[in-house]
Structure formats: structure tokens, C-alpha cells
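Memo to structure team: turn this sequence into C-alpha cells by end of day. - J.P.
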Amino acid sequence: MTLLQVSSLCAGYGAVEVLHDLAFDVQPGEIVALLGANGAGKTTTLRAVAGLLPARGRIALDGAEVTAASPAQRVRLGLALVPQGRGTFGEFSVEENLALGAYTVTSRRQIGQDTERWFELFPRLRERRRQQAGMLSGGEQQMLAIARALMSRPRLLLCDEPSLGLAPAVTQEMFAILRRINEEQGTALLIVEQNADVTLRLAHRAYVMETGALTMQGPARELLASPDIQRSYLGA
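Reply from structure team:
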């Protein structure tokens, strides 16, 4: 069964409609990229799917419609968002941030197990477990944002510009971690990114968005070789 199915999706801010009849899907265990220029509507799409914006149309998880569900209900159903700008709680410690990511989890044992699991994947976070999140480097804060989202054990992780503000070497490390999460945990990913090259090399499929509508889609490797994509996003 399709993990995420979006159809006829319209959303925006106040009277301004940003998304126009979007239709796309994510299959279980799949990595899907959503590409586009600034202002195309990519972040709005993730916010609508996560329930942070009111939307019209249909959003379904495992075939069950969640268009009217609250963000917390969607988290309980297996969806989590890593927002643009990381969104960590700077005054709280790394451990406290992870605990906040598990706000829908009632089992203390599960929270403890998952904290250790993500400390193994992100050893730098273990080293800084009692440090305030606001004192971490940009890359470490992004690692913390991903680990915090994973504390709810999502089946679909929405990532909004995970490479934003990171050095190229840190970006490569971040995307290698996302690949591990997908391969080892079976977590599906929907990634919004400006860095088309590294994203298309990670993803299985991709969609291209312009002014609130999807204009191109297909296997990521095919889009990576597309002259239109190379000209528009890869500087070729």
C-alpha cells in the first residue's frame, strides 16, 4: 500500500494560494526528492503534509485520509518533520531535545532505547548530550533535528532543506546519514532541497516544482541526466 498519497492539494497563507492541485506519492521505504527554485512552494508542501497549514484536497497515510488530522495525530500515525532552519530548542540540552521529540511516546523504556540508538548513529551528539543545543555547530544542530524527529519512530521523514547553511563536507556526511536511516531503518524520506545534485544521487524518484505546481517527475537518475535539470539546477 502507498505510504503517502497526496491528490488535488491546495494550500497557502491567508488569501494567497501557493499550491495548486498537487498530486504525488511516496512508497514505503522510498526516498523521494522535491526540487524547485526559491518560492516554488516546496516548504509549503511539507508544512501542509505535516498538518502545519490548512489544506484542501486529500492527504492519506496508508490509505487513511489525514487531511483534517492535527500535527500530533500525524506524528502518531508515523509522520515526522525536520523543519527548515533545524528548529532545535537552543536553551535545552541535546538529551532534552531528544525527549521533546518523543512527546507522543508513553514508554520510558522505548525513549531510552531510541536515545541510545540515535547516539550510536550520531556519536557527536552523545559527546554533547548535556550541552545546550544552541551551542552546537550548524551541522550538529542538523543532526540533532534529525535525531529528534526520529524519536517518534516515523515511517515517513519529511526533511526541509537539510543542507541549508552547511559546508559541502558536512552536507555529504548528512546525506550519508540519511541514506543509512533509509537503508537500516526502512524509513521513507521526502526531501526538499536546493542542492539538486546530491539529492538526486540519494533519491529513488523526484518531482520538480514551479510556482506551486509539479512540472516534471521520474526516476532520480533519469532526472539527473536531463538537460533541463542540468541547465536549471546543476549549472550545466
